[in-house]
Amino acid sequence: MTNIETCKIMTKPSLVDFLRLCDRNHWCTPRIRYASIRSKPELIQDLVKFFHFENCEDYIRITPFRTIHGFPDLKYHIRSRKFHRDGKPYDCAAKSRAKPTFQLEKKTVTLHFGKLYRAQHGNGTAAVSSVGSLGPVMSTLGGC
């Protein structure tokens, strides 16, 4: 069974969830568009450029063609239509649709500017507040 035929076994919603996960983790460069208006064959054509889909009786093993640091042992169970990550059930739909989390911290940081900056402006380091550092950087971008 070819890579494309194996991939056709997966449902379109599962393919879209997998593509969202790829996008979130930056597994595919350049990015693959996963809009719902794209057909399943279009999505499959894009996926088979980056991943190998191996049919192993009850599941499909997904492996990247190139080495991707941190890529999990990812399987898609054909009967249950669910993903398994490192041998454990994985709710790909919920994880791929979750909003990204981030936090802002207000603390003093040290910036190292390197040799070129040191030659022109002194020792090459400066202690600034992380919130205060946004002001000068943003104002210099306005002149571009």
Explain the overall architecture:
- The structure is a single chain.
- 34% of the residues lie in helices and 23% in strands.
- The chain has helices at residues 3-8, 12-25, 40-47, 92-97, 115-121, 134-141, and strands spanning 51-56, 59-64, 74-77, 82-85, 88-90, 108-112, 125-129.
- Helix 2 crosses helix 3 (40-47).
- The radius of gyration is 22 Å and the shape is elongated.
- The chain folds into 2 domains: 3-97, no CATH class; 103-131, no CATH class.
- The chain is an alpha+beta fold.
- Strand 1 (51-56) and strand 2 (59-64) form a beta hairpin.
- Residues 131-144 have low confidence and may be disordered.
- The termini are far apart.
- The protein contains 6 helices and 7 strands; from the N terminus they run H-H-H-E-E-E-E-E-H-E-H-E-H.
- A 5-stranded antiparallel β-sheet has the order 1-2-3-4-5.
